[in-house]
Amino acid sequence: MKKRAGGSKAKAKGRKAPAARAPRVAKPAAAGLRAIKGARHHEMAGVKIDSVAAANGQVKRVVYPPGFRWSIHMKPLIGTELCMHGHVGFLTSGKVQGQYADGCTFEFAAPQVMVVEPGHDAWVVGREPAVLIQFDAAAETAQRFGLPAEHRHAG
Ligand SMILES: [Zn+2]
Predict the structure, then answer these.
(1) In the chain, count of helices (H) and strands (E)?
(2) Looking at the predicted structure, is the pLDDT value of residue 13 above 90?
């Protein structure tokens, strides 16, 4: 293997890396929205979706813009009364609120793991886009993750 010029100096002959310099870190927003290798990109109702096949499902980065509300922007394209997808993932940026048909509500603020059962409306709160890293298996998502087919209470 060829060594690249300017490669990892820290590894060379046990020399220590300079201690006093902080690593250069990209701005979180910029780093979080860069193109994902091998992803299929599409947009729907202002929502940007990058999807990569992973194991027997997909890993997606879903970016919901400020002002987005499922029942206003997505519902006309989907045709169901509520979003019937289960969402399991990690909210890396932004804030999301939502409501189920029975009036139960939920709220997630990054950084937070998100689990939302099928049968909900949801919307972005504030001026930051909501960025969700979602683990999903298309129509089988709810079943795969042990969620009910639609939100309901045991009692
Ligand atoms: Zn409920």
Answers:
(1) 3, 9
(2) no
Hey, what amino acid is at 11? K
Reference 94, options 71, 126, 117, 122; nearest CA is 126
Dist. CA 85 → ligand 1 center (Å): 16
- Going from the N-terminus, what domains does the chain have, and what CATH number goes with each? 38-144 (2.60.120.10)
Tell me the pLDDT tens digit for each residue of 73-85: 999 999 999 999 9
- What tokens were used for 149? 């087919």
H-helix or E-strand containing 132? Answer: strand 130-136
Distance from the CA of 118 to the center of ligand 1, in angstroms? 11
Q: How far is the CA of 153 from the centre of ligand 1 (A)?
A: 5
Q: What percent of the chain stands above pLDDT 70? A: 80
Name residues whose C-beta falls within 8 Å of residue 154's C-beta, 6 or more positions apart in sequence: none
Give the model's pLDDT for residue 29. Answer: 55
* C-alpha span between 95 and 50 (Å, rounded): 20
Report whether 123 contacts 70 (CB < 8 A).
yes
Find the 112 Cα to ligand 1 centroid distance in Å.
21
**Would the CA dihedral through 37, 40, 41, 45 be positive or negative?**
negative
